[in-house]
Structure formats: C-alpha cells, structure tokens
Design a protein that fits this description.
five-stranded mixed barrel; 55% helix; alpha+beta; globular; two-stranded antiparallel ribbon
Length: 596
Amino acid sequence: MANLMNPKDMDFLLYNVFNAQALTQAPIYQDHDKTTFDEVLKTSARIAEEYFLPHNAKADANEPQFDGEKVTTIPEVKTAWQHFAQSGLLSARHKYEDGGMQLPALIHAACNAYFMSANPSTAGYPFLTSAAANVIHAFGNEEQKNTFLPHMFSGRFSGTMALTEPDVGSSLGDLTTKAIAQKDGSFRIKGQKMYISGGDQDITQNIVHLVLARIEGAPQGVKGISLFIVPKFLTHTDGTLGERNDVNLAGLLHKMGYRGTTSTVLNFGEKDNCHGYLIGEAGKGLMYMFKMMNEARIGVGTGAAMIGYRGFLESLDYAKNRPQGRAPDEKDPQSKPLNIIDHADVKRMLLAQKSYVEGSLALCLLAAKLVDEHEALDNADSGLLLDLLTPIVKSFPSFYGPKANDLAIQVLAGAGYTREYPVEQCYRDNRLNPIHEGTHGIQSLDLLGRKLWQANGKGQQLLMAKVQSTLNSAANKPQLEKLVSVFKQHLNTFVQTTMTLGQTLQKGEVKKGLANSALYLDMMGKLVISWLWLEMADKAIETFAESSEQSDQSFMAGKIQAAQYFILWELPEIEHMAKLLSGFDPTCLEMQEAWF
C-alpha cells in the first residue's frame, strides 16, 4: 500500500523551502522547535494511518443513513473522531490558556494534510468544527465562548457552517432565512439551508451550527446579513444540554464522492421555536463568516492537493510493479516485459501528477505560512499577499487535483476504473473541491475583479518581489538556466495581460474585462505554481547537491525534472490564454440562450 505522503517531501517543504523554524522567533511560538513540530506531525501521520485510512473505502460504500428520526454513520467514523479529539488537534492553533498548543498555521496545515490524504470525508467533521470554533473564538462574546468552545475543542460538540439555501446557492446576499428578535436578546431563526456538511450525525453529543440569516427589517443584500449560533440542543452555560432546538433534518443528499460526510438539508424553525444567538454585531455576519470561509478555502486547496497526492502515490506504486509491453525498439517477443513505469507516456502521466500535486501542496503551505506571518509576526504585507493568493490557493489544487486523479486512473487503466483500487474513489472525492467554498468561476471574479487591485495593487508588487528573489537565486545554478529563461518570457506575457485587463476595468468596462476571468485565474495559477517549482528546484539543489546519499540525489533530480515538466509543458499554455484575454474574445459572452 502506498504511503499517505512522501515524508521526505513534507520535511523538505517545511524546513528547506518555507523555513518553519524561523516561526519560533514569534513570541507565541517560542516554546516550539523542530522536535515539537516533528512530534505533532508524527502523531498526525500515525492517527491518520491507524484510524482514518482503514475505513476510507468502507465509509464510501456505506453512506450515512437517515431513518426519519436519526442519522447513523459507521462506527469507525466515531472512533476516528475520538482519536483526533484526544490528540488536541481540534484546538491546536489556539493559545495554551484556551486549551490549545499554540501551533503555527504552517505546521497545522501539514498535520491536516495527512488526514485529507487518508480519508477526506471523515476528516471533514473535525476540520469544520475547528473552523466554526475559530469564528466563535474570534467574534463571539465571553458567554458564547465559555458555553461552546471547551466542548468543541474536546470533541463533545461538532460545528458546521450553514450558508447555502436551495434557491440562492452562492448568491448569499439574496438569502431568505429570517431572524426574529426576542425580548431576552436571543432570536428565533426560520428558514432552510442546503448542502450543509456534517449538519446531522451520531458522532457528537451536540452540533453547533453557524447560520447566516437576515434580522427582520434589515436591508436586502450582504449588508443585511448577520451570523448566529444555532445549537442542535440548547446548551446551558456549564455545557450541559437542554431540550432539542427546533432544527430538523429534512433529508440527506447522496453525493458522487465525499460520501462519509453527511450532506444535509436542514429546516430551522418549523415550529417557530428555533433559538439562535447573534455573534458580534448585526449586519456583519458575512464579514465574520469570511474568516471561516478563507480558512476553509486554504483547507479545500490542501484537501484537493492531498487527494491528488494519494492518487499519484497509488498510481506510482502500481506503475513500478505492473509488467506490460516492451520498449518500442525491442523486437524480441521472448524478451521480458517492462514495468509500465519504463514507458515514456506513463512517465508523462506520472510527471504531470507529481507537478500538479507537489506544486499544489507547496502553494497551500505557503498560504499557511503567510497566515503565521500576518497573525503572529504582525506582518501586513503577508496579509495582503495572502488575500491576493487565496483564490488561487483554493482553485488551482481543486482544478488540477482531479486532473491528477484522472491521470492516476489512466495509469492503472482497466484496474483504475474498478472499485478494487482506491484511485476511482480519489477522483470522486476530489470532484467536489472545484465546487464548494466558492466555485472556480466565483474565485476568478474575486481575483480579477477585486483582489488584484486592493491597496493599489500592492499584493501584485509583493508577489513579483518574491518571484524576482527566486529568479535571482536560480539564475546562479546552471541546471536551472533554461527554466529561468523560459519562465521570464512567460512572466512578461502575464504582466502585460494583467495590465491590459486592468486598464479595461479601470475604464468601467467591467462586463468585458471580467468575461473570461476563469481563464485568467488558470493563467495566474500556472504562473504561481511555476514560480514555486523554480523555488523548490532551487532549494533542492542548495540542500542536496553536495550529498553523497543516492536517495538525496534522486530526490533533487525529481524536483528539477518536475519543475522542468511544469515550466516547459504547462506554463507555455498561458500564451494562448493571453491572446484570448488581451483580445477580449467575446465568444462566451456573446453566446445567447436560444443558440444552445
């Protein structure tokens, strides 16, 4: 069985590419060192392998059931949840006084990566809970924090985010769920939410829903939206449970993948008695929820990268051990068949997967490090760069992770299309990621319509400074000379295209400028991943060039070859994208409904 991740790869990314040890200079992380980081990573890998991985296929084959009264999940999901909770990972990012480990976001993201590789659907429950707890911790009042957080951190309670409605989808400004103010300061919630992951289950004693709703009389649009805590069971301040709240499961949705995580339709206030508690100020609900959503976007990107990574490792293992066919120049029918990894086209498919998933993982870890620099080191520039990159962090892995899984199936051929091998489930699980937490198209509008131009485009300047730093270092290494030259050529195209689009948007031609935004998101994603591959190749040479270990030499050569693949095979595609974008090709925009 293939590993969940190449441990050398994670070690290299954390310590050689992103210099995790430097984070211990921040006061909040000063108790940590490489030893404590490695220990928590080792614990995460062990729990993922022992309690998450073994039931991944079983949870897929045995979806949660709803008998009209209660939901039933397979028992292994609850066992995995308990081990995750006991490890302290639910509160790992929080301060010691709040029961946390004061763990950097970078290390926490690396820990989560193991769980996403092992079993993304079971991992969904703790990840949603951590994210919901973070919102309450950031914006809730003291009573709310004291009532709910200790039990969310201990694993007694789980959490959800309840945004989407059946008729609204991603247009949250149009939501219709109502909040009716009560004399005691609480609210009664009334409405329906759909696609709520973890919205009901039998794993925890209580579920804390974070619900977006509009207080009666509040204006339409996003400014009228507030955020509420709506528990499944009313909860006393000491954490004991009261009566069942008026939140009811209308039904479970049956999904293509991610089947172990319940996906629910929830009815709030069928009996007009659904208690909700306002978080923070009225009208700021979407702003508060974006803390959770931005965190979730990095999480989705990491999940997509790791499901892709798992498929890559499975297909690599298969290719190394599956004899079939001979070299094109081998004419002797009695000769021994080659393992399929020796065929050039199989190498192409494996290289493509490697370049997508290792590049995506690097991108997600970069985002996590920017979170640390912004929050723990109070670096405003890191916050700006993170804002700019977040649409790419969510979308590139989500777009190319499933492509990697598709290639993994192809490497296994007929075997890959059967349920006897995990690669088909990886593909089905990963196909959700381009959809949730803002679709690819929505992320592209956010990037091109907003994020690029924030703070007078400072995010772009910060990115270009980092790119230039990598180019300066890589230019001194003969092995990377060609890649640096090719990258610079395409970087110039990217910069020119961005300027052209910016000028059009500045003139107020918004519809024209944003018509092909999805193409721009893909283009910028390819550029950023190419930069990260150049950075990884550069650091691999600096780290391993003098090593006499064969494994180190092979690791370094693999990084250089994957960088070469992505920069020579994938990056040049942006030239065609640039022509369509700079020429404002109207093909899609001008298509009319009747012509379909």
